[in-house]
Amino acid sequence: MDVREFLSETAVTHDLITISSPINVNYQLANVAHALEGRVALFEQIEEYPDWRIVSGLCADRRYFGINLAIPTDKLLERLVDALENPVPNPIVENAPCQEIIRDDVNLNDLPIPLHLPQDGGHYISSGVAIINDPDDGANMCYHRLMRLNKNEFSARIIERRGTHKAMQKVDGDLPIAICIGVPQAVHLAASMSPAANISELALANALAPTPLVKCLTNDIYVPAEAELVLEGRITKRMTDEGPFMDLTETMDITRQQPIIEIDRITHRHDPIYHALLPGGLEHKLLMGMPREPTIVAEVNKVATCCDALITAGGASWLHAVVQIKKERAGDGKRAIEAAFKGHGSLKHVWIVDEDVDLHDPAQVEWAMATRFQADKDLIMMEAATGSSLDPSGTHVVGKKSRTAKAGFDCTIPWGGDAADFSKAAYGTVTLEEWIPTR
Fold first, then answer.
1. Spatial distance between the Cα atoms of 406 and 408, rounded to a whole number of angstroms
2. pLDDT one-digit tens code per residue, 222-244
3. Alpha-carbon distances, residue 185 vs 42, 179, 191, 196, 217 (angstroms)
């Protein structure tokens, strides 16, 4: 289901809000989109960009992924786990919607790229899915925020020692790249996952939903055929300032020296729709956190029986997780803690709970910690562990991996204890209509 099909579906479910009044991309659009957080918003009149429409909120609710993939929301994790284990090669097409219009005269100022906050370093693309070909491992798909510098260049935040950065070190000159905007949710989810280096995220997307590809016109990269907009270019060896910009934690990230990307060609659909993803917003959080849940499940299942996992909103959808297990032997809780940290390397704190605890209910998780956890027995701590660059309280040194203290809380029923002693007593049910008169 591409962006346009999804908009039609959400119009039927009354999740779509259409804004017909003219709106400016300088702060105004971001402010209105923020006020509508959680809803899909289609802006039909963009000041100074009459050929464009802008959509926000495509990925702002787990339910929207369910709508797009035609599955119940509670089956999302299962589908992600299955895709991670069973990627499907993509079909290739010759003609694609994303290449209906071809622009050789590149001018990035013609694109309605928002200016989100007064503190920002410039106009930023935050929804772009970037695809490169690693010389050894093939296609790699991920996200890089892009700050517009001029009519044909961006500065790109490329995190050290990850896929794109590693590929850059393997080539002497420029590294070809394609940046895709307005892609189906399956592509967004796959770009956010972390499979083994030899597994294509594009194949993961195709396992989630049919994702045909088309070859770029200026390089050998294949991109989702149903994208609204594709920027074909090269990551150069030249460096410049990038930032500041709001990050996942809703704090401003610093300015760094980062690579410059040169754009050689722009292709897009007729009547194109630009996807504006708010930094630090619900889309950003869900796309960062939710795709890490299957990797946590996969690792925990190696040492215990994992029932569910949740990257929590309170942990900035990145730093905290709750993992539900079926405890079958002594030590399962602690083994699950260690495995969860392997499943998501940026995790800072993790809580392990039993099957009777609803991990989506913070009060139930806190209750399990209050009644089943003893700090001197059930706490695992790690000092100066490899952590996330997004954690402002961590230790960050340029050129080195970020460091942080980590903690895991085994909030499961103590092994050997009587489950009845650790379970909530239940009242009987009544029919209130029998007791409260109605008029």
1. 7
2. 999 999 999 999 999 999 999 99
3. 16, 16, 10, 21, 24
Instruction: Identify the segments of the chain with pLDDT beneath 50.
Output: none
Q: Are 244 and 225 in contact (CB under 8 A)?
A: no
**SS3 for 33?**
helix
Q: What is the DSSP string of 37-54?
A: TTSEEEE--BTT-TT-EE
Q: Which helix (H) or strand (E) holds 403?
A: strand 403-410
Strand, helix or coil for residue 76: helix
The pLDDT of residue 161: 78
Task: State the Cα–Cα distance between residues 397 and 278, nearest whole angstrom.
Answer: 28
Residue 256 has what DSSP assignment?
E
Could you give the angle at which helices 293-300 and 332-343 cross, rounded to 10 degrees?
140
Instruction: Give the bridge partners for 179, in sequence order.
Output: 130, 231
What DSSP string describes 101-146? EEESS--GGGS---B--TTSSS-EE-SPEEEEEETTTEEEEEE--E
Q: What CATH number is given for 287-416 in this structure?
A: 3.40.1670.10
Q: 182 in the Ramachandran plot: left (φ > 0), alpha (ψ -120 to 50) or beta? A: left
8-state DSSP, 263 = E
308 SS3 class: strand
Which listed residue (61, 134, 247, 410) is catalytic? 247
What pLDDT is recorded for position 382? 94
User: What count of other Cβ atoms lies within 10 Å of the Cβ of residue 107?
Assistant: 12
Task: State the angle between helix axes of 201-208 and 185-192 in degrees (0 to 180), rounded to the nearest 10.
Answer: 140
pLDDT digits (tens, 9 = 90+) for 398-426: 778 889 999 999 999 999 989 999 999 88
Both tokens assigned to 213: 């590809």
Instruction: Give the pLDDT score at 142.
Output: 93
247 is catalytic: yes
Rounded-to-5 percentages of helix, strand, coil across the chain: 30, 30, 45
Q: What is the pTM of this model?
A: 0.86
CA dist., res. 13 & res. 10, Å (int): 5
In sequence order, what are the beta bridge partners of 231? 179, 266
pLDDT of residue 439: 65
